[in-house]
Amino acid sequence: MTDFVITTPPTPAIPVAGGGAFPVRRVYCIGRNYAAHAVEMGHDPDREPPFFFQKNPNNLDASGEFPYPAQSEDVHHEAELLVALKSGGTNIKLEDALDHVWGYAPSLDMTRRDLQGQAKKMGRPWEIGKAFELSGPVGPLQSAADVGHLDAGLIELKVNGDVKQTGDMNQMIWKVPEMISYLSDYFELAAGDVIMAGTPSGVGPIQRGDEMVLTIQGLDELTVKVT
């Protein structure tokens, strides 16, 4: 046993519907994976090679509350499907990719858009805008054995009852198996890794007191209050 010199930090985890928890190792997030969102962010929606950034495992939060973060006046919602892996490896073949999926959950990639914009202009990494505390609200994971593999169906976010984002998972430029296979060419994936699969168009600002409700067809709803 390793004799750690400080108290071991808690293991970040996502609750599982029906009981238990899924330990999180890494969080990979794909950028601009819906064509309409690429357009609204000022980019060509043609199928270019995917790109990824990361959040920290302990950024994921299932409390149902999102504290408005410090140092920002322009925080945006991004509704996303989260994919949780039960196994991994390198150079995973496309036809084998879904064998590594444990399950799925609704999630939000909350973004300090003003700080992200400053980083983009200066050619710097995005973490200051993406990987801050509690920036990944998430609902309970549901197993693929129970819900199947999600490759089509509604993804919709309402803020205070008004639809802000809507799309279909079949509009993803890079599908879930492709994301897994691509990532495995550059990283050694492993059990506990999760992938946030991109957001449809309609991203926009939230304010303290707002209520966000994310619906993904086949999964339980995620409700998050901005505090």
UniProtKB/TrEMBL annotation:
InterPro entries: Fumarylacetoacetase-like_C, Fumarylacetoacetase_C_sf. The keyword Hydrolase applies. This is FAA hydrolase family protein. The keyword Hydrolase applies. SUPFAM superfamilies: FAH. Keywords: Hydrolase, Metal-binding. GO terms for molecular function: acetylpyruvate hydrolase activity; metal ion binding. Pfam families: FAA_hydrolase. Residues 27-226 form the Fumarylacetoacetase-like C-terminal domain.
